[in-house]
Amino acid sequence: MRVISVTPPNSLVLVMDGSVGRIPDTMEGRAFSSTESCVAVGCRSEHDGATEIRLGSVEQLAPTDMLIFEGELPAPSGRLSVFSIMY
Q: Would you list the domain boundaries of the chain?
């Protein structure tokens, strides 16, 4: 399992393989949205502190962890990355 702590400037992170990810067109008023190759996650404002993101299999996560996406993301490069959005 990988755990990272981030403070994204626009309260949104993307989890995907940067070589193939197609980001969602909209969040549609939800805390997360996904495509077949990317998960977009709304999170805390950078002014409210860091957001912890855990990436791993369901078996690796604690029962108290909040699961917002269960599925597989293609990663032909062998790496998933967490990106922030900057305008």
A: 2-84
